[in-house]
Design a protein that fits this description.
Number of strands of chain A: 6
Structural class of chain A: alpha/beta
Low-confidence stretches of chain A: none
Strand order of the largest sheet of chain A: 1-2-3
Oligomer: homodimer
Helix content of chain A: 40-55%
Largest interface: A-B, 59 and 59 residues
Distance between the termini of chain A: 18 Å
Mean pLDDT of chain A: 84
Largest sheet of chain A: 3 strands, mixed
Strand content of chain A: 15-25%
Chain lengths: 150, 150
């Protein structure tokens, strides 16, 4: 079982310079755990997890003092979401070094994919082969392939 | 919009002293991002993300040297998965202090839920009201409720 056999080719991808609001709406509408972010050449460059988008919307001081979160009403929720307006997907991405990427080769074994996912603490990895993106693999899809049937 | 209005009551929960293999199979079969772990009294006590189960299966030295992952064949994948045999869900849980929990009150606002999710880096939170578990909320479900329609 190789990555190319497991990858879901319909897993949504968004361009890194695309609209942040549209990316968030895609995550929301399809209840996704994350999106693949692609560069100008259509190559995957990062995973954008849903929790990261929430982290972008919610001010730091609210994340660190939950009592403050309680005072926000529906109106302010709308205002918070508006922080996505005019932003790009790039601005939502965690500020980490792009050394280790959540990307595996189509030829990677299930164990390799699991090792990348485990090391990166990522719920999704993108699969690439010969410069072509084949799709993505989630932890659930991978477990489904790694656990022997019984 | 409150947590109780957003929570999915059918989100699966597993007992902390339940079988690790069964929990992994549930994650796999339903392609879930994580499971709610409940204690002896049926109260949620943690979230078990799929990536955490993979981290348990894959030896540390393989996570740190991806070249080693490459040499594993299908046979060894079966052997790795067998590390779940005879283990409990408790043994799969990350060894963190159970001070901050991925749990919110049914009365929590969407912003409060988002703040907990963002702070805990968790893709799922459990919702509890009057000692009763109402269900769970994922980042995707929450974004779907937080983003104003347009």
């Amino acid at each position: 079982m190789r990555a190319r056999d497991i990858a879901d080719p319909d897993f949504p991808a968004v361009p890194v310079d695309g609209d942040a609001w549209e990316a968030a709406s895609l995550l929301a509408g399809r209840k996704l755990v994350g999106l693949i972010v692609i560069d100008e050449d259509g190559q995957p460059m990062a995973i954008l997890p849903g929790a990261e988008v929430l982290r972008f919307i919610i001010p730091d001081y609210v994340q660190h003092d939950l009592a403050l979160a309680r005072v926000y009403d529906e109106q302010s929720a709308d205002e918070l979401a508006s922080t996505l307006e005019g932003k790009t997907v790039r601005q939502l991405l965690p500020k980490k070094e792009l050394v280790d990427l959540e990307i595996v080769d189509g030829d990677a074994t299930a164990i390799e994919v699991a090792a990348v996912m485990a090391r990166m603490h990522s719920p999704v990895v993108a699969v690439v082969e010969n410069g072509q993106m084949l799709g993505a693999i989630t932890a659930g899809m991978l477990l489904d392939n790694v656990l022997p049937r019984r």
